[in-house]
Amino acid sequence: MKAVVMTAIGGPDVLQLQDLPDPEITSPTQIKVRLHTAGINPIDTKLRGRGLFHGAEPPAILGCDGAGEVVEIGDQVTRFQPGDKVWFCHGGLGREQGNYAQFTVLEESRAEFMPARINFPEAGATPLALITAWEALYDRGRLEEGQTVLIHAGAGGVGHIAVQLAKIRGARVITTVSSKEKADFARELGADIVVNYREDDLEAMVMENTDGQGVDLVFDTVGPDTFRQSLPLIREYGCIVTILDPGEGLVTSEARNRNLSIAFTLMLTPALKDLEDALQHQGEILRLGGEWMSEGKLKTEVSRIFQLEEAPLAHRLIEEGHTRGKLVLMTG
Fold first, then answer.
1. What single DSSP character describes residue 60?
2. Has residue 322 got a pLDDT over 80?
3. Coil, strand or helix at 164
4. Residue 110 in contact with residue 270, Cβ under 8 Å?
5. CATH of 2-126+276-330, one of 3.40.80.10, 3.30.530.20, 2.40.70.10, 3.90.180.10
6. Helix, coil or strand: residue 33
7. Pairing outcome for strands 326-330 and 302-307
8. What is the pLDDT of residue 104?
9. For residue range 64-123, what is the model confidence (pLDDT) as tens digits?
10. Which helix (DSSP H) or strand (DSSP E) does residue 220 occupy?
């Protein structure tokens, strides 16, 4: 098979297209999948630049998100048959093969049926971002109908899905973007108030639209400066959820005085720690989120599709920042 191999720790040029043997089923409960697409996520660029999990060393195949067609099943597989279309977030962290490849093998419990009425690029782009946004808003943030949520980077890979999930829950959405084009996109997704952080005063707009009280929940997908700037924008007893490290030297007196909850979400933890219950919950997220996608309530914006040999270019674009929606590799 053809695969993009991370040959060393370093810049995008360490990603090289190579010919490798197909992976083989080694357990009776595994399935072999002909991959059609693989989502490209910021975690891929970080692993490439900083090193892999599980103490693994290059060479390695990156890519957590995948979608494709089952071509072979183990003797004890009960859920799938050859020809079934599946999607999943599995591998690509160092221990198991990732999805920048034409084939992969995984336990059947780690895959879900691909939603009806969506295509392979959409399916390959969705799992990690959907699970991340769901866990942040619904599980950690406990977002409720009628609340107001501030979602940073609402046109980004995770952010644009978070905006839609918040609206599905019946929340009022304020989101930040970096351009007029992205502002228009965020409004199409259902955002109620869109703040261009390069031109608008975020604090003034939040307070103006919350009667000076602040939002109930903040979802930070950007980083330390954004995390710190968000604390004064949250009402008393509100919550902030971040997918990133807020950085050293964080002063929490503002959060303590306002009785704020601070929560972290890393959707990779169940895979890294082999937490079976949490992995099953993530499967449930894919099943329900997939139903919403089939019903047209939720969509994934695929802004650009790359061929396997273009993986280095895709990594460069992600590291430059400000991409809209998701980037996807065509693997087969």
1. B
2. no
3. helix
4. no
5. 3.90.180.10
6. strand
7. parallel
8. 98
9. 999 999 999 999 999 999 999 999 999 999 999 999 999 999 999 999 999 999 999 999
10. strand 215-220
